[in-house]
Amino acid sequence: AQHAAPPLPRCCPDERSSRVALVMELLTMPPRKRRGAAMLLPLALFVIACVPIAAIFARRGAAAQNSVMHSRAFGTCIAEVQDTLRWGVDRSTANRICCHNRQYAEWSGYWATTEFLAAAHSSSEITFYDSVTGKRLFVAPKGRTMEQFLAESHEHGWPSFRDAEVVRDNVVLLDGGEAVAIDGTHLGHNLPDFMGNRYCINIVSIAGFPRS
Predict the structure, then answer these.
(1) pTM of the entire predicted model
(2) DSSP label at 100?
(3) How many CB atoms within 10 Å of residue 68?
(4) Helix axes 41-48, 13-27, angle to 10 degrees
(5) CA end-to-end span of the chain
(6) Tell me: the pLDDT tens digits for 43-69?
(7) Among 8, 22, 40, 208, which is least packed by CB within 10 angstroms?
(8) Cα 114 from chain centroid?
(9) Which pLDDT tens digit goes with each residue over 89-125?
């Protein structure tokens, strides 16, 4: 199924100031007008709360759009995925999603059919590695329990990571919300919600073994 991402919200100091002013205007409106505008308040508060990491990712993404996802030896990847992937992940699916794809995803719930859940239930924290290069991409859970991480992932159909769980040196967020590894592996998309950024990631893209 297609797994498209909405445009990533952008924040800068001037925009942030104007958005604070907008919320203050909503709060000081006469009661009659305020009732009509009240539905806009949660959205405005979310925009104000746009965290610095989103802006960092956005700036990196704009500059890296062409330099990261250019043609390489195997699609956008430097090579095919590793010969054996963790959790019994299907290698042919991984090659297709990681290296010859910018828009689509493994089917919803695929991650839960692998051996990943057994590993997660016996772990307090898991490091996820690029299926091609073996570089660290995510470490989860951070700031929540494994049960909470799994519950959110079950709810949305794909492993779902938050900002604190991203290895920022190795992950780039491109315009439109596409999340990729610095060596060209397609990972998934950022789909922000009321809690902030949520990185909806294919398990086939992060099932590599670490390499020195």
Answers:
(1) 0.71
(2) S
(3) 19
(4) 150
(5) 35
(6) 555 555 554 555 555 555 445 555 899
(7) 40
(8) 20
(9) 999 999 999 999 999 999 999 999 999 999 999 999 9
